[in-house]
Amino acid sequence: MPSVSIVVPAYNAERTILETIRSIQAQTFSDFELIVINDGSTDQTLQRLDTVEDTRLKVFSYENGGLPVARNRGIQRSTGEFISFIDADDLWTPDKLELQLKALQEHPDAGVAYSWTAFIDEQSTVFHYNDPIWYEGNVYHDLLLKCFIANGSNILVRQECVKAVGEFDPSLRSTEDWEYYLRLASQYPFVLVPKHQILYRRSASSMTSKVTVMEKYNLLVAERAFQSAPQEFQYLKNQSLSNIYIFITKICLEHECNKDGVKQARSKLAKAIQLYPKALLDQKNQYLLLKLVLLSLLSYKTVRYMADMFRKGVSVIRAN
Fold first, then answer.
1. Which end of the chain is less crowded, N or C, counting CB atoms within 10 A of the terminal residue's CB?
2. What mean pLDDT is reported for the chain?
3. How many CA atoms lie within 13 A of 230 on its CB side?
4. For a pLDDT cut of 90, what percent of the chain falls above it?
5. Comparison of pLDDT for 301 and 139, the residue scoring more
6. Could you give the CA distance from residue 182 to residue 211 in angstroms, rounded to a whole number?
7. Using an 8 Å Cβ cutoff, are 33 and 80 in contact?
């Protein structure tokens, strides 16, 4: 029986699936089974997988059921003591499994290990590193405020914890990972590997570009979470909703940065501030507000140039 089961949901992933598989094969920890759930692909995904020569690879094909269902089918097929998930367009650094497994072995009370995330573009080039966060132990409070784990390609979780909390919610078309992490955090401590080990791909066709869907399901998950959260955490609700609208503001600017997108972003940021005025004390949100003001007055190209020059200036100052 392998120590780790890796579940890869794949739907029309012909462009990226082999790169994802290679990043898994490059892991310094090798005692794993690699379960790919072909979720009704109509492109060359299966043909690409047929070229992989690795006895650890197991491919199972189903009619399309969506991402949560595909992950659940992978869970049902898994035999490892630990389970990890990676989407078919994301990558891991080679030491991801090794260090997360070590963290769980050193903290036998913990049920979940996670790492920091970096973002890659369609050419697999890193363009942004998430700021370090240091939440460990009982992280339920922190997860209620935002999904700091950032994506569904991150965690390593004990099989016994998965059996205890159940599977991913198949009714969610987005944000199912946050909802799942909340259930885990309500019962088990988390442990951190303080390295950027998850390479999360952002593209025009990625889920994060579907603004309306993201907003709807983030709000739905938050509402559900606070319905079941203890009374002592209810005071966090407005701040949590504010964080969602700030996130949606950023998505609007990244994927719909035109006149309508800027207008939509202004509306979302206004909701965020209305819900939690202290959000404006955060320097990043001040920068976001300034960017929106400038975009209302200047072209996106000009603002982008100014932002790039500002970041370069900050880098030079830090280097000196």
1. C
2. 92
3. 4
4. 82
5. 139
6. 22
7. yes
Q: Is the pLDDT of residue 318 over 50?
A: no
In the structure, what pLDDT confidence band is assigned to residue 275 with cuts at 50, 70 and 90?
very high
- Dihedral angle at the C-alpha atoms of 183, 186, 192, 195, nearest 10 degrees? 30
Residue 205 vs residues 183, 211, 253: alpha-carbon distances, Å: 28, 11, 15
Q: Are residues 144 and 9 located together in one domain of the fold?
A: yes
Residue 63 CB neighbour total at 10 angstroms:
7
The pLDDT assigned to 306 comes to: 59
- Domain with 66, as residue range(s), is 4-207
Examine the domain organization and report whether 109 and 197 are in the same domain.
yes
Q: What's the count of helices (H) and strands (E) in the chain, helices before strands? A: 12, 9
CATH number for 106:
3.90.550.10
Q: Are residues 227 and 302 in the same domain?
A: yes
What residues form DSSP beta bridges with 190?
A: 112, 137
Task: Give the pLDDT mean for 31-46.
Answer: 98
On the question of pLDDT at 297 being above 60, the answer is: yes
Average pLDDT score over residue span 183-195 = 98
Q: How far apart are CA 162 and CA 169, in angstroms?
A: 13
pLDDT above 90: residue 33: yes
CA angle in degrees (0–180, nearest 5) for 148-244-151: 35
Looking at the structure, do residues 144 and 203 belong to the same domain, yes or no?
yes
- Cα–Cα dist 2/99, whole Å: 17
221 and 202 within one domain: no
